[in-house]
Amino acid sequence: MTVLTTVANAVEAAAVLPAAAAEAARRNSDLHVLNLTSGRDTQALTAALDAARAELGPDGRAVVVTEPSIPDHASAALVAADETRAEVLVIGVRRRSPVGKLVMGSVAQTILLDADCPVLAVRV
Prior knowledge:
The protein is of the alpha/beta class and about 120 residues long.
């Protein structure tokens, strides 16, 4: 089994990856990272991934990074959770106004409502 997390930017990576790595270490599971950055912030993402690898230690747990096969971030996360048989899905959330949610939608809300596994929301 795995712990799955999604990363959409460097700020989110800095908040979500440590929480996901700690959850993977607690569950003695591999960490699967769905990289939604589209090639942005690669240096910051690499630094956050290195910190996550250090958190998991050298005892054989893997940190796997993949790119989504679906352009919609919420759908990509839900498909990845099913494909990896994730024990838990770790996502980043930020405060948005009700109007902002209505106009722009909410990836986090879709994931929280539609995920088949438990979701750990980390404030970004």
